[in-house]
Amino acid sequence: MGKIGLTTTIPVEVILAAGRTPVDLNNILISSTNPGEKVEAAEVAGYPRNVCGWIKGLYTVANELEDLEGVIAVTQGDCSNTHALMETLELAGIQTIPFAYPYDRDRDLLKLQIEKLMAYFGVSWKQVNEIKQELDRIRRKVLQIDRLTWEMGLVSGFENHLFQVSCSDFEGDWVKFERKVDRFLEELSERPSSAGLIRLGYIGVPPIVLDLYDYLETIGARVVFNEVQRQFVMPHLAEDLVEQYLLYTYPYNIFGRLKDIEEQIRLRRLAGIIHYTQSFCFRQIEDLIVRKTLELPILSLEGDKPSRLDARSRLRIDAFIDILR
């Protein structure tokens, strides 16, 4: 069964219905032994220094991955550098398959994109919907992990991040992933609650910084809301596949995301927000909108390459948490 690389979350049901193995290249990069070396390898290959570290890492991961049949690249709704990433992958002999989320959430355009993907892989709506039923069962379990994070204080911010971000590709094997989720839920039944930590929200793309969640917990704070990672789980779980990916907030304009964030701020009783932005990413501009819209303390944090928090970032986080105490 060939592997299909993903540059971000797409209707993964199509890939699994086709009997292929989805592989989120971002997850492979950040969980590798030395992700920083993969970013540097792309620079050696000719990628400019002032390009997003995720894009450079994805380029190296795709070139190194065995049994890679192709890469589905999201050309609208994710990263503005994806076009050039596709071109450099094609130059390296890797098949690329474009997928685009319509900026205005046009249902017909999104359905057309999904059906083009289905035609490429030769699968029917019946096959895709059967897989959706299986994945939705797992998604409900991961959403339970999320609920146990903010409602009961049983799950760390990193664990919450990890299980939710893994729903982009279900770690390539949804059967094994479901067993892993089940085991974790069993463990939680015997875990004591960690009440009393300062409750934070994390918004923006998943961090390239390796120790952010752990550091926050050492100074008495916990992320109980991971915005984009939660969206990877498809929290609205619509019956209709097209509707489900219309309700998915991340690839469309920021105002839909902000509405979801504001709802979760109230529900989860958040004390503050960390808005993470990636160096050289167009989404850094959106920090202006975030700050003008959300009515609670916000720390804007920027990451560049895979690494541990630098001294300046730790000092800024310390000061932010002191303000919230």
Helix-strand string: EHEHHHEHEHHHHEHEHHHEHEH
Strand order of the largest sheet: 2-1-3-4
Q: Please outline the major beta sheet.
A: 4 strands, parallel
Mean pLDDT: 95
Gyration radius (Cα, Å) is 19 Å
The low-pLDDT segments are none
Number of helices: 15
Indicate the proportion of strand residues: 5-15%
Outline type = globular
**Structural class determined from secondary elements:** alpha/beta
Helix proportion range? 40-55%
N-to-C terminal Cα separation, in Å?
A: 52 Å
Number of strands: 8
SSE blueprint:
Elements: E1 3-6, H1 12-17, E2 21-24, H2 25-30, H3 35-45, H4 53-64, E3 68-76, H5 82-91, E4 96-100, H6 107-121, H7 125-150, H8 157-165, H9 174-188, E5 198-203, H10 212-218, E6 221-226, H11 227-232, H12 241-247, H13 254-268, E7 272-278, H14 287-293, E8 298-303, H15 311-324
Parallel strand pairs: 1-2, 1-3, 3-4, 5-6, 5-7, 7-8
Verbal overview:
The mean pLDDT is 95. The longest helix has 26 residues, at 125-150. It contains 15 helices and 8 strands. It has 325 residues and is an alpha/beta fold. Strands 2-1-3-4 form a 4-stranded parallel beta sheet, with helices on both faces. It has a 4-stranded parallel beta sheet with strand order 6-5-7-8, with helices on both faces. It starts with a strand and ends with a helix.
